[in-house]
Amino acid sequence: MSGDAQFDRTDLRLLAEIQQHGRATNAELAARVNLSPSACLRRVQRLESEGVIAGYGARLEPRRIGLGLQAFVRVQLEKHDQHAIGVFADSVVDWDEVVACHALTGDMDYLLHIYVRDLEHFSSFLLDKLLNAAGVADVNSSFVLRTVKDFRALPLSQLE
Hints:
Elements: H1 9-20, H2 26-32, H3 37-49, E1 69-77, H4 82-94, E2 98-103, E3 110-116, H5 119-130, E4 136-143
Antiparallel strand pairs: 1-3, 1-4, 2-3
Helix pairs in contact: 2-3
């Protein structure tokens, strides 16, 4: 699906509800967006088949499962050819500590979002994995002191 998809207000309300209440039943969603259950189901199925709804999942509280340290690590590669980029990307995919990796413009090439147990775990990740990855020239780490906003729903109001 291309980025120029057109949605009516009902689609946008339905997407907002699904982002907020992913476990809602079809009947609950239908009531919230003023549709019949069958019409609601057809819309949800269409949005799923078009790839607008990419999946469903639970949001876990990191500290409650023992992941008490969160960091953002900026990575610069030595080379920027396809091979070097591919080798780095393949490594990142295999590292469980990395929950997101973004290629950037500017002076650093990648931004890694990392969750680990503690500083010792971070040190082990950094020394044993990241700094040993082929092609890594420089890293710069920042630790999260407090999260001010962490709501992963996409802003739909700008699409109306």
